[in-house]
Design brief:
The complex is a heterodimer. Chain A has helices at about 20-35, 40-60, 70-80, 80-90, 120-130, 135-145, 150-160, 165-175, 180-205, 210-255, 275-280, 285-315, 320-350, 425-435, 500-505, and strands spanning about 5-10, 10-15, 65, 260-265, 270, 350-360, 370-375, 380-385, 385-390, 395-405, 415-425, 435-440, 440-445, 445-450, 455, 465-475, 480, 505-510, 515. Chain A is an alpha+beta fold. Chain B has one domain (about 5-110): Winged helix-like DNA-binding domain superfamily/Winged helix DNA-binding domain (Arc Repressor Mutant, subunit A), CATH 1.10.10.10. Classes of the chains: A alpha+beta, B alpha+beta.
Chain lengths: ~525, ~110
């Protein structure tokens, strides 16, 4: 299936398919840019177009027939390659200086088949920027070795850049030198066009016929928008490329070669590979690898396509690689499916829960206040209470510790109930994980010392491990909650309805109706505060 | 490149030099369409590709050596029908004279060998 374009050549209407149209357009553009310096350029082009129309009319059997690539090639054979025309013309025209043969028309990025090591990408870039291709080869060479990103971009360019097959294309490839002043010129021209369009609007305002004026106005407006979009498009393209390359580099760096993500804690910076993090929740290294590959594909493919589109807009490459688009889409969908599959697999590691409770009685002299204190950990929090980094920079999965204090209505002892929770693929696995949780409460005289985090032994896996502690105390038992306990307290019912984070630093007493405070300031009392709601 | 002696290049240069002479000669016989001129030059193997002729015709017209008028065509829009001017005829006479002299000179020199 091919798109058909209707076009007017020398006063005749022709139907052309897309590639033959592009080819003809490129041919005419090259000739036009070649003759642009000459007096009567418009006339020459008209004559040539006229002749082209005649040639097409001769080759086509019916006027409805479509002009194909072959017809265009035959026509170019008759009319002559732009290079030959340019050469003959140059020596015929005595007023024209030698060396002005380089066309002043727009330049396009092509791969240079005459100057290639691999695909001619660097040769084409060299021709485009008017720089020795060796420089590009060096840059790519270095980035091949250093980051690997260069390799990717090289192949991307290889796919994006069409090969300069015809002389017209080779002329276009060399075209006008691209440097700051020509870029400035192009932008100026575009802006000039915008200005011109605005003037058109103005003059259209004074036009007699209103309908005509509106028509003119709309045309001019469309032109302005078109030109502005073109300028914006270029900036966007540059942004796409820079954004894409930066993120892709970070990405590839982090994942494939990755020493990974740098995280600063306090004054220390830890380098934590992404694989280490994924390893915590996966079942085995295969799952980890699959997860990383799918993340790479899901995020990487759009980044690659972003760079590709940027390159295409910036260098006005019209050549469309359908297979690339479909391949990219295919790989991306595959990445999503792989990601979905891996996500289900990883989530299934958390399917079952197991809990294991142990009860410890606390011996305490009658009438003595029980002190609750928490240890300081020698780890740094990486992510909430889920990941910590130990002093060697190693990531360790940790779990939450939650303490509740309730009334012991059975006897007059203080009692600790420590429940270890864990998840796992099966109930058995969850049970094993729960038993691996290392957690103890140390009693020293009348002081209970809690650790604010739990540490797992013999497992490097995070399985939502948790420790819930219930401290049961009899009536009239006084307790002092030390300030260090703040992170351990969880949803403790008390008479004042005080918040957990307010409760530390005060002495409490167990009464029939619940825990009451002995030395709390009035602001902690929430009993009548939320009645309005 | 231009300093190198190249057979093809030299031949092309020689052909190009007489192109104006030949075009004017064709038009001196009778008025013609561009395609007629091209066909004759192609038959005589003086040009290879057609694209070169159009700039040349325009240049000759701008120089006042030939003119054209629009002729209705049965096939489509009107086409340019070229004719030589009086100035063109004088120009052609001079070119022909030069050509004869050159021809004579070449013969004379190469026969001396």
């Amino acid at each position: 299936m091919k798109k058909i374009i209707q076009t007017n050549i020398g006063g005749f209407v022709f139907h052309m398919d897309e590639d033959s149209y592009e080819k003809l357009k490129a041919y005419l553009d090259t000739l036009k840019s070649h003759f642009s310096t000459e007096e009567g350029a418009i006339e020459i082009m008209q004559d040539i177009e006229h002749r082209i129309a005649e040639i097409f009319k001769d080759t086509l059997k019916t006027p409805r027939e479509v002009v194909t690539m072959q017809d265009v090639e035959v026509m170019i054979g008759i009319m002559g390659q732009p290079e030959i025309i340019a050469e003959e013309n140059a020596s015929n025209n005595s007023t024209k200086q030698k060396g002005s043969r380089t066309s002043s028309g727009p330049k396009r990025l092509y791969r240079d088949p005459d100057n290639k090591v691999l695909g001619g990408v660097c040769g084409g870039l060299g021709a485009y920027f008017g720089i020795d291709p060796v420089i590009f080869r060096l840059i790519f060479g270095i980035t091949f070795i250093a980051w690997g990103t260069g390799l990717l971009i090289y192949f991307l360019l290889w796919i994006a850049m069409p090969k300069a097959r015809t002389t017209a294309e080779k002329l276009e490839m060399r075209g006008e030198k691209i440097n700051v002043s020509t870029i400035e010129k192009t932008v100026k021209e575009e802006l000039e066009g915008v200005k011109q369009s605005f003037q058109d609007i103005k003059s259209s305002g004074t036009a007699e016929k209103v309908g005509n004026a509106i028509q003119n106005f709309l045309n001019a407006l469309a032109q302005i928008i078109h030109r502005l979009l073109k300028i914006i498009g270029k900036f966007l393209a540059v942004f796409f490329i820079i954004f894409g390359i930066i993120f892709l580099s970070i990405f590839i760096w982090a994942i494939i070669f990755g020493e990974g993500i740098s995280i600063s804690l306090n004054q220390d910076t830890y380098e934590i590979p992404l694989s280490t993090l994924v390893n915590l929740i996966s079942e085995n290294s295969l799952q980890t690898r699959l997860a990383i590959i799918s993340v790479l594909l899901i995020l990487g493919i759009p980044l690659i396509m972003l760079i590709y589109v940027g390159i295409k807009i910036l260098f006005r490459i019209q050549h469309n690689s359908r297979w690339l688009n479909y391949t990219a889409l295919g790989i991306w969908i595959f990445g999503i499916m792989l990601g979905g599959y891996t996500a289900i697999k990883v989530l299934s590691n958390f399917k079952n829960t197991y809990s294991d409770t142990s009860v410890i009685d606390i011996s305490l002299e009658k009438g003595k206040t029980l002190w609750l204190k928490a240890l300081k950990t020698n780890t740094n929090i990486l992510w909430d209470d889920f990941l910590h980094v130990d002093e060697n920079g190693k990531v360790i999965p940790v779990g939450d510790v939650k303490l509740n204090i309730v009334r012991n209505d059975k006897d007059s002892l203080c009692r600790l109930e420590i429940t270890r929770f864990s998840r796992g693929k099966t109930r058995e696995e969850a049970g094993i994980n729960a038993k691996k949780i290392q957690y103890e409460v140390i009693q020293s005289d009348s002081v209970l010392i809690f650790s604010p985090i739990l540490v797992t032994t013999n497992t490097k896996k995070y399985r939502a491990q948790q420790v819930k502690i219930t401290l049961k105390i009899p009536d009239q038992q006084k307790i002092y909650i030390d300030e260090s306990m703040e992170s351990v307290l969880f949803d403790i019912d008390n008479v004042l309805d005080a918040w957990d984070y307010d409760m530390d630093g005060h002495t409490w007493i167990m009464k029939k109706n619940g825990l009451d405070c002995l030395d709390c300031p009035p602001y902690m009392d929430n009993r009548n505060k939320f009645l309005d709601n | 490149m231009s300093t190198q002696v190249n057979l093809e290049n030299t031949q092309a240069q020689m052909r190009k030099g007489i192109l104006e002479l030949v075009i004017l000669s064709v038009l001196a016989r009778n008025d013609a369409y561009a395609s007629d001129i091209i066909n004759e030059l192609k038959k005589a193997q003086l040009i290879v590709v057609e694209g070169t002729l159009y700039p040349l015709l325009t240049r000759l017209k701008n120089g006042g050596l030939l003119t054209y008028r629009w002729e209705e065509s049965t096939l489509g829009p009107p086409r340019k029908y070229y004719a030589i001017t009086e100035e063109g005829r004088q120009f052609l006479q001079q070119l022909k004279k030069t050509w004869e002299e050159l021809n004579q000179a070449v013969k004379q020199i190469s026969n001396q060998q």
